[in-house]
Write a structure and sequence with these properties.
The chain is built from 9 helices and 40 strands. By secondary structure, the chain is mainly beta. The longest helix is centred in the C-terminal third of the chain and has 18 residues.
Length: 703
């Protein structure tokens, strides 16, 4: 990864580059706008039940976007990663912070009305070891706000006061699962999924009574033991696609941590199940070398009242690359072959764009490729299965695959405009090298016995893109190239605009038909969340949360944009026509590592190497190999606390910063702490040119 530093990406990038449109905006496929998306309120994830992330409001348009300005901003002290999209209900905004704190804000003025904190660090601190702090939003129904904490506790809150009405545990004790996603509401029910597939957890979703928190049903996305499956037709069917003893090696993955869409017309909920875990199918399922491993990497339709299985469509059989169906799932009515078809639209991490019949889950047209794909030629329309290329499961010991583990499209929401008939997708392009039996470079790291590293080789690699996609013709309409890899979700407006924030901190508006950049605002920090729009007293607003972070540390240089930990405030920004508010000046990006050193400290090479292995516990927040991006955790090479061994030991043992997201490492021995300290010091000296660079990665690091 040393040769793939951010400087290479920056050198290859320039101002956003617009490619020529290959269609006329897709208008021939547009559907009637009535009932699509959101109006004055934005009451649910994606704006409405259809998940379109589309606003029918027209005050902000291509004709006056040049007059769009900042109406107000709200600083959010203590927050780091902000991935959620606010909800708007009757003049109030509701949104979540890094560790599921819930904020209620006056939508016209930005005044904070109340805040609720689930205090995961106090209730279940062990869960903080499994993830960086990130939460993707809240749900609202009938005067109540719902949120799920990292430890899986679900809360029902009074929307007027923030008072807790009930609390329920969605994750049984001892499970490796965690919750980072937004709940959904379904006519008096609240549904929540969870993550943890990378640790081999078993995926499931749970529905609760919205008034009482009573558990109503649970659906597992992978089967259990024969005894657990008995009498459950969906689990018995899934079990036939796994080896007989696979549960001895973990839960199989399939965690549903993000995409869920409720269809009130049919009383169905569509669940996006995640990747299989572990990645290597021979590790997680040694008893069945060809099994599909249902329901991983699938969309599963359930009865919302009972949780009963209805149908599924698996996008990747026997997933071996961290491919997942967790990106947002959209409902629409499309004019296909002269007939209106009720469909689901999905752009999963594997790079294809799928249009499915909403009633049956069957493919409607040949999925198109939204990014570089080298694992499959196309999708068989008769079977719905991909026509895969050979040696994609590292059968010969080495596979280089596009998209890589981060996917072509991840959790950042895509949006759909019924006026243009186009879907606007935030895309990443980067590959991954999977190797077994030692057939990897010195830069690879170990994932449960599998060597893995991101790679930049093909033209366009290392960049993010905003892609306008025609779901009827399955062709790209236009594309904008972003400077950096990891950018925000999108919002489509009836006024002919598409909004997206970028890693480098620009908030952009594009002409929805042509892709022309028509407006830009400097947010002062990278944006990864999706914007939304609402109206108060007849005035339209656009809001977005600003808080670069999340998985950025794990990807190190690939996502390093120079945002230093704690230097830029996290904010909610809200815009309107005629807005004149200004942001206070804040430090800009800084790509230099300001490493510190104690020249009197003598490093023992054995300690350094042992510390490299133990530093896996630090990677999610401080970076693989200590190559931190400054978010979501500080660069330890620059840390004064990490300079002194005793101060470092006291911090790890005391848990003094747990409230800020720093777990308590009370299980580490003095020797392990000393070794990690030695590794940090060695990496700082490398940066200062006082030591030869060490290109190897610590073992057992997961992206």
């Amino acid at each position: 990864m040393r040769r793939l530093k951010f400087t290479i990406l920056a050198a290859a990038a320039s101002a956003a580059i617009l490619t020529a449109a290959c269609t006329k905006g897709g208008g021939e496929s547009a559907q009637p706008e009535a009932g699509v998306g959101a109006d004055k309120n934005w009451p649910t994830v994606g704006g409405a039940n259809d998940g379109s992330s589309y606003s029918r409001l027209t005050e902000i348009s291509t004709g006056n976007v040049d007059k769009l300005g900042l109406a107000w901003s709200l600083d959010l002290p203590g927050e780091v990663t902000l991935e959620g999209t606010p909800l708007a209900v009757d003049g109030k905004l509701y949104f979540s912070g890094s560790y599921a704190a819930v904020y209620a804000v006056d939508a016209a003025s930005g005044k904070l009305l109340w805040k609720f904190d689930p205090e995961t660090w106090k209730h279940n601190p062990d869960k903080m070891h499994f993830s960086f702090g990130a939460n993707r939003g809240v749900a609202y129904e009938n005067g109540k706000v719902f949120v799920a904490g990292l430890d899986g506790r679900v809360f029902g809150l009074d929307a007027a006061t923030g008072k807790q009405l009930w609390e329920a545990d969605s994750i049984p004790p001892g499970n490796l699962n965690i919750s980072t996603g937004a709940p959904r509401v379904m006519n008096g029910k609240v549904i929540i999924g969870n993550g943890g597939a990378d640790f081999g957890a078993r995926g499931f979703v749970t529905a609760f009574d919205a008034n009482t928190g009573k558990q109503l049903w649970r659906f597992f996305t992978t089967p259990g033991t024969a005894e657990q499956n008995k009498g459950d037709a969906a689990m018995e069917a899934a079990a036939k696609t796994w080896g007989a003893d696979f549960t001895k090696h973990g839960g199989g993955g399939g965690t549903a941590w993000n995409g869920m869409t409720f269809d009130p017309e049919t009383n169905r909920v569509y669940i996006g199940a995640g990747n299989a875990g572990a990645y290597d199918p021979l590790v997680r399922d040694p008893g069945d070398p060809k099994g599909d491993n249902l329901y991983t990497s699938s969309i599963v339709a359930l009865d919302a009242t009972t949780g009963k299985y209805l149908w599924h469509y698996q996008e990747n059989q026997r997933d071996s690359w961290d491919y997942k169906a967790t990106p947002n799932i959209q409902m629409a009515t499309l004019n296909i072959d002269g007939k209106p078809r009720k469909v689901l639209m999905h752009a999963p991490t594997n790079g294809f764009f799928y249009v499915l019949d909403r009633d049956t889950g069957k493919l409607i047209n040949q999925p198109g490729k939204t990014t570089v794909i080298n694992w499959a030629k196309d999708i068989d329309m008769k079977t719905g299965r991909p026509n895969e290329y050979p040696n994609i499961r590292y059968e010969t010991g080495l596979t280089e695959i596009w998209p890589g583990t981060i996917g072509g499209h991840n959790w950042q929401a895509m949006s759909y405009s019924p006026r243009t008939g186009l879907v606007y997708i935030p895309i990443q392009q980067i590959g991954a090298r999977f190797a077994k039996n030692g057939k990897a470079s010195e830069n690879a790291f170990n994932v449960m016995g599998l060597l893995l590293e991101p790679i930049v080789q093909k033209p366009g690699d290392g960049h993010g893109y905003l892609v306008a996609w025609n779901p009827v013709t399955q062709k790209e309409a236009w594309r904008v190239e972003n400077k950096n890899l990891w950018n925000g979700g999108t919002l489509a407006l009836a006024g002919g605009l598409v909004f997206q924030g970028t890693a480098e901190g620009t908030f952009n508006a594009y002409d929805a038909k042509s892709g022309k950049n028509v407006w830009q605002f400097n947010a002062g920090l990278g944006i990864i969340a999706a914007p939304m729009s609402y109206s108060v007293n007849g005035k339209q607003y656009v809001s977005v949360l600003v808080g670069y972070g999340g998985t950025t540390a794990a990807y190190g240089d690939f996502m390093n944009v120079g945002w230093k930990y704690g230097q830029q405030p996290r904010r909610l920004l809200t815009f309107a026509i005629g807005g004149t508010a200004k942001l206070a000046p804040t430090p800009g990006p800084d790509m230099k590592v300001h490493a510190v050193d104690d020249p009197k400290l003598v490093l023992n090479e054995a300690d350094v190497q042992a510390g490299k292995q133990a530093s896996v516990a630090c990677a999610a927040c401080h970076g693989i190999g200590m190559q931190a991006t400054g978010t979501p955790g500080p660069d330890l090479r620059e840390s004064g606390i990490a300079l002194d061994l005793e101060s470092f030991k006291q911090l790890l043992r005391s848990g003094a910063l747990m409230q800020n997201g720093m777990p308590k490492f009370d299980t580490l021995t003095d020797e392990q702490i000393r070794q990690i300290h030695a590794y940090i010091r060695a990496k700082a000296r490398e940066q200062l040119g006082l030591r030869q660079k060490d290109n190897s990665r610590p073992a057992n690091v997961r992206l």
